[in-house]
Amino acid sequence: MDIDLFLKIGLGYLGLASGQFWEMRLKDFFLMLQQKNETEEANQRLKCNLIRTQTSILFNIQIKKEDRLPPEELWPFPWDLDKKEKEPEMSLTEGEIIERSNKLFDMLPKIK
Hints:
Blueprint: H1 3-13, H2 18-23, H3 26-60, H4 71-74, H5 78-85, H6 94-107
C-alpha cells in the first residue's frame, strides 16, 4: 500500500485535517479507522432493522394471526444467523470446576 491510500482514508473517510494525519501514530490511525467502521456498521444495522420492522408490520397485518412471523424470521440478516450459530456457554458447578482444575493440576510435571 502506498501513502496516497492512507491519505485518502484519513482525509476523506475519517475527516482528519492534513496536520492531524501527519502527526498521528500509525496505531492511532488504525484504531480510529476501526472505530469509524464499527460506528458505520452499527448505523447500517439500525437502518436495516428499522426497515425490517416496518416490512414485518406491513406484512403481518395482511395475514392471519397464527401465520404472522417475527421480523427475524421474515427477513433474517447475517448478524441474526451469527447469534443462532454460537454455541451456548457451558455452565459448570463449583464442584465440577474444582474437579477439572485438580485433573489439570495432576497432569503437570512434578518438580523434584
